[in-house]
Amino acid sequence: MTSTEASTASGTSAVAAALALGDDALILSHRLAEWAGHAPVLEEEVALANIALDLLGQARVLLSTAGDEDELAYLREERSFRNLQLVEQPNGDFAHTIARQLYFSLYQHELYGELALGDGPFAPLAAKAVKETAYHRDHAEQWTLRLGDGTEESRRRMQAGLDGLWKYTGEMFRPVDGLDGIDGIDWAALEGRWLAALGGVLERAGLELPQGPRHGAWAAGAGRQGLHTESFGRLLAEMQHLHRSHPGASW
């Protein structure tokens, strides 16, 4: 491979990785924004909105690396999105949202922490984002503890959220196209740290680590290949409606 070919391959890999990570942040940001006006208390209205804005900021940087951020967010078709299936899952009740946040924020904090230590193209973003994900992780952990150690009903709902989303967690640790060659992520080690951190939180909350498969089924492991769950089409229609209805509009 010539130096020119190597540079082209590296650039293509960076775009693939930027799309995967950017789509994760964009789609979860939209899901959290759906809580506006519906959060259980005013404090959570603000907290969830702040987390959504953090994720949106990450998405803008990452998608701008891959191309025009508006076109990538609003004009792509469903099969072109590379986000994890976990982040597109409907909010459900508040405990279900917290379960999704716990799984993803633990993963994102570990991943960005590793990227921040490298010298790849995502290191500058990761160095800033890891501070944000530390807050996201703490927020999810504290609510997991409150719900798990609260009433019988809150514990039941939190456990149901964890159990229901468990099958989507395996996809987080499948190598992201482009990221291995750029930053050399050890995905098995990342998964081990995630499981250890998750187990510690659930033990303190009096909750059980879910059982069952986390790998293998296409319906819970192909978001990176553009295969999404039924709810994603409705999410995308809502997110893209205004832009598609008024092409070229400016404010």
Shape, please?
globular
Low-confidence stretches: 1-10
Q: What radius of gyration results from the CA coordinates?
A: 18 Å
How many separate helices?
Answer: 9
Fraction of helical residues = 55-70%
Strand content: under 5%
Number of strands: 0
Spell out the blueprint of helices and strands.
Elements: H1 3-33, H2 42-66, H3 69-74, H4 94-117, H5 123-148, H6 152-165, H7 179-183, H8 187-205, H9 230-245
Structure description:
The chain is mostly helical and 251 residues long. The chain has helices at 3-33, 42-66, 69-74, 94-117, 123-148, 152-165, 179-183, 187-205, 230-245. It is globular and about 50 Å long. The termini are far apart.
Keywords:
251 residues, 0% strand, 9 helices, disordered N terminus, single chain, mainly alpha
Short summary:
This protein is mainly alpha-helical and 251 residues long. The chain contains nine helices and no strands. Helix 4 packs across helix 6.
